[in-house]
Give the backbone structure.
Amino acid sequence: MSDLLKEPARLFDVRGRVAVVTGASGAFGALAARVLAAAGARLVLAAGKASELKATEAQCRELGAEVVSVARRPNTEADCEAIVAAGIEAYGALDILVVGSGLNDVAPIVEMSPERFANVMHGNVTGAWLICRAFGQRLIAQGRGGKVVLVSSARGTLGHPAGYTAYCASKAATDGLTKALGCEWGKYGITVNAIAPTVFRSPLTAWMFEDNDKARATRAGMLARIPLGRLGEPEDLAGPLLFLASRASDFYTGHILYADGGYTAG
């Protein structure tokens, strides 16, 4: 029996690892930052909303983490190089990338302009591709492997009747990027996986958890498809994130991990 199997909790140890988190002012990105901070990682936080980024930074420092922040989204090659360079300058190396940046724009396809569609695809797919490219160049040069965690959605595999053509297409592309990079970077010891949640509690979805007719009707429609009988809570994403960011997932790559209570199973 290996030493790790004698102390299996060590498989999830990320203490001292350097983690870059994009979208660190958003619901998933801020959650990821706090989880990794509490687990002892050193952080590079990136987001376009400077004031909200500072709030996440402060929360992570309160948890005892070392933190540097970069007020940039992964919109361009220059943005991504700056985010990666900040991590190298601060810590000398990189280990983990969590791509928490992204957006949605809901409208029937006949009412959505090509520009709006392209904006969602750029925010959810091109930005992820660009930051993975910049991060991967450094990881390959370091020669010691690493972890990449993308954020997909149940909508990467399922459609939606309420104007989600851009979002569903972008998350299906995220799934494809995850699988392609998992194959491409396996020889470098770099694992690439994605977390794909359904609805979970966040500032954007708080209304769905309220006690009123609209919220109850929306929940009822969702819960009819969720075998575990509830919507997601932040801690439901914390465990999968730590798994994918740690040695525990060393033999997993190119996977889409559905944190959805069974939503995509039925």
Q: What stands out?
A: The chain has eight helices and seven strands.
